[in-house]
Amino acid sequence: MSLPFLVFFVCAGIAVLGALLLILAKEPIHSALALVLVMISLAVLYLLLGAEFIAAVQIIVYAGAIMVLFVFVIMLLNAGSEERTDWSKMAKYAGLPLGIFLLLELGHWMFHSAIGKEIANGSVAASSSVSTVEMSKMLFNQYVFPFEATSVLILIAILGALVLAKRDDQ
Amino acid sequence: MDFITHHPVLVVSLVKIALLLFIVLTALAYLTWFERKLIAHIQSRWGPVEVGAHGLLQPLADGLKFLFKEDLTPPGADQFLYILAPFLALSLGLTTIALIPFGPPDIQVLGQSVFVVANVSIGLMFVFAITSIGVYGVALAGWSSNSKYPLMGGLRSSAQMISYEVALTLSVVGVVLLANTLNFNTMIEGQRGYYWHFIPRWNIVPQIIGFLCYFTSAIAETNRVPFDLPEAETELVAGFHTEYSSFKFAMFFMAEYANMITVSSLATILFLGGWLSPFPDSWTFMRYLPAVGLLLLAAYLIYDTFVLARGIAKIQLIVISFGALAIALGCLHPLVLNIIQGPFWFVTKIGAIMFFYVWMRATLPRFRYDQLMAFGWKFLLPVSLANLVITALIKVWPLLVGHG
C-alpha cells in the first residue's frame, strides 16, 4: 500500500469519526471541535489531490474563521450540555428509512456509474493537480461572474445581520 | 547508510526538524532572558544577575522551577480540553517555524536545502492557515478552566485575534501582489537589487504602509504590550492561563515567544529581504561582519572576565568567551563564511524586530479594550485595504495606459 493511500484512509477515517463525534457529543463546544477536526482532515484530503491552495483556504476560512466564531459564541453564551430526548416520530418512521435509502443509493452509484468506475480505475485523480496561478486565472476569467456574485451575496448577508442587530437602537 | 541513500528526503527532514527544534527551544528560553535584561536596562535596573554570569543561566533555572512545581487541575475543568489547550498552542506555534527559510536554498546536503524544513509552494498561505488555528489554544484554555477570569480572558483574546487577523492578512497582500508568488524563497529573491546602488530594494520601501499595518497587527496577534488585554492583571488576574500552573503554564509562555519568532520571521521575509545582505555584493569586506561581530563580543567578554566578574561567574565567562573566540575564528574559513551569510542576516533582522517588540513593552501603556477594537476595525483595516487597492492600481496602471 502506497503512502498517499495510507494517508487517505487515515484522514478519511478521522473525518468520519469527527462527524460522528459532532452528532454524538453532548457538550456544544466538543461538537464544534469535532467539526474542526472534520474540516482539517478534509483539507489533508485536498492536499492529497494536489490542491494546495484549496487546502490552505479550507483551513483558514472554515477551521480558522467560521468555527472560531462558533466556539466564540458558544463561550459567550456559556451554553450548557444538551439534553437527550427520545427520537421524534418523524425521525423514526420517515428520517431513518430515507437516510438508509440514500446511503444505499450512493453506494450503488459509486460502484456502478461511469464516473465511479473511472475513479476506481484511478484515471481521474492524476489530472486534478492545479497550481495556484492556474486556479486564480480561472477564477478571475472564466468564473468571474459567479465569483463576484457570491461576494455580493455575502455582503448582503453582513448587511442583513447589521440591520437586524441595529433595529432596536433608534 | 543504505537507508539514507534510499530515503534522503525523510532522513534529512528528520535531522533538520530535530536540529531546528533544539535551536528554537534554546532561542525561546534565551529570548526571555533577552527581554528581562533589556527591559531592566531601559528602566535603569540590572535584571537577572544572580544565576550564572550576567544571569545567563536564569532560563535554565526557570525551566527547572516550572518542572518541579505542582501541576494543578481545577475541579470542574474539562479534563481533555484543559490538557489539549497548551499542547495545541505550543505545537502550532512551533509548526509554523518549519516553513520559514533561514538561508538561501542553494546550500544543500544530499540534494535537500539545509535552511528550511518544508519549502512549500504556497508557504505564506500555510503560515496563515496554522496561525489561524492557533486561536483555539487560547480560547479552549479560557473555556476549559471553568473559571470566570480565564473565560473572560479567553473571550477577549479570541475576539482580538480574530479582529487583527483580518488586518494582518490584508496588509501582506500588497507584498504578494509585488512578488507574484506565495513561496517564501521566490519572494526573497524578488527583493534582490539596489536603488541607487546602495539602498536595498526591499519591499519595505514601496510597502511602508503595509509594513506598519503588519507590525501593529502582529503585536496584537501575539497578545503583546500595548495590546496585551487578554492578560491585563488589574482586571483579569492573568487572563486565559490563570488556572494553569507548572509546565502547562510554561507551554503557553513558550507558545507566545514562538509566535513572536514566527511573526518577526514573516516581517523579515516579506518586508526586509529575508536572508539577503543589506550591503551590495561589491562590498566584499562586509562578508566578514559575522566573524568581526563575534570577535568583538569575545573581546568584550574577556575584558569582562578580568576586570568585572568575580567567583564562579569568572570561570563561566572564560568558557563562553573562548567559545565565542573559537567560533569567530572558525567563521573566517571561506567555506563557513559563505554558509553563514544567509542565516546571519536573517537572525540579525529578527533580532532587530524583537528589540522593537521589547522596547515597546518597556515604553507603552496598555490600550483600553474599546480603543483596541476601534483601532483595529476603524483604522487598521481601512488603511491596509487602501494600501492594497493603491498597490493593485499601480501594478495594473501600465496595462491600462498601454491599451489607451
Summarize the structure in words:
The complex is a heterodimer of chains A (170) and B (404). Chain A has 170 residues and is an all-alpha fold. Chain A is built from 7 helices and no strands. Chain A has 3 domains: 1-81, Four Helix Bundle (Hemerythrin (Met), subunit A) (Up-down Bundle), CATH 1.20.120; 90-127; 131-170. The longest helix of chain A has 26 residues, at 52-77. Chain B is mainly alpha-helical and 404 residues long. Chain B has one domain (2-276, 333-403). In chain B, the strands form 2 sheets. A two-stranded antiparallel sheet of chain B has the order 1-2. In chain B, β1 and β2 (112-113) form a beta hairpin. The model of chain B has no long low-confidence stretch (mean pLDDT 84). Classes of the chains: A mainly alpha (170), B mainly alpha (404).
In total, the number of domains of chain A comes to 3
- How many helices of chain B? The count is 15
Give the strand content of chain A.
under 5%
- List the secondary-structure elements of chain A in sequence, H or E: HHHHHHH
N-to-C terminal Cα separation of chain B, in Å? 65 Å
Strand order of the largest sheet of chain B: 1-2
CATH class of the largest domain in chain A: Mainly Alpha
Helix content of chain A: over 70%
